[in-house]
Amino acid sequence: AQTVTQSQPEMSVQEAETVTLSCTYDTSESDYYLFWYKQPPSRQMILVIRQEAYKQQNATENRFSVNFQKAAKSFSLKISDSQLGDAAMYFCAYISSAGNMLTFGGGTRLMVKP
Amino acid sequence: DAGVTQSPTHLIKTRGQQVTLRCSPKSGHDTVSWYQQALGQGPQFIFQYYEEEERQRGNFPDRFSGHQFPNYSSELNVNALLLGDSALYLCASILTGGDWEQFFGPGTRLTVL
After folding, report:
1. What is the 3-state secondary structure (H, E, C) of A8-40?
2. Which of A98, A103, B99, B105 could tie B91 with a disulfide, CB 3.0–4.6 Å?
3. Contacts of B103 in chain A (CB under 8 A)
4. Shortest CA gap A43–chain B (Å)
């Protein structure tokens, strides 16, 4: 069974600075997708960024980028120029290309200090 | 274009009762997944419906059942409620054959007393 682990329950960053959230996963499959979701207090789960395992190039979306290390099964999220609106729970998630279910990590609460 | 909608927003039940939660997927999406998110934890997969049938199921007891209608909307039913069923229930909408992105609704907060 696949597992996703987020080892940082809470992180804090100063506004305008950079923060990195960690995620590791365990799978025996070679073809899969990884995601970072943001869940603000409004509870709506919002997709931040995605990475296809077959792509070597790390995904980027504006201020958000990932460091995908397939051999190490690591998938970290870097948020640059942090903004107050980035404060939320962040979840790392995995899905096999042959499967239908997302497997989530336990989440990291990100606080942004003004 | 309406996104994923869920109803009700929140509800309170007592132990032993039954509850039905509803989900309407994003326009054009044909697949619905349900997740349970306990307080302070990541979501856990309950099951997925496609073509009105349960396609995959997570590690949840038979008290959890579902249904998908011809218009792709879905219901989650939970019988004989336990205190431990208190959680946020999330519905996710997917386009089969698409790019694997799951669009989430705002969730239903269920409290069991």
Report:
1. CCEEEEECCCCEEECCEEECCCCCEEEEEEEEC
2. B105
3. 47
4. 6
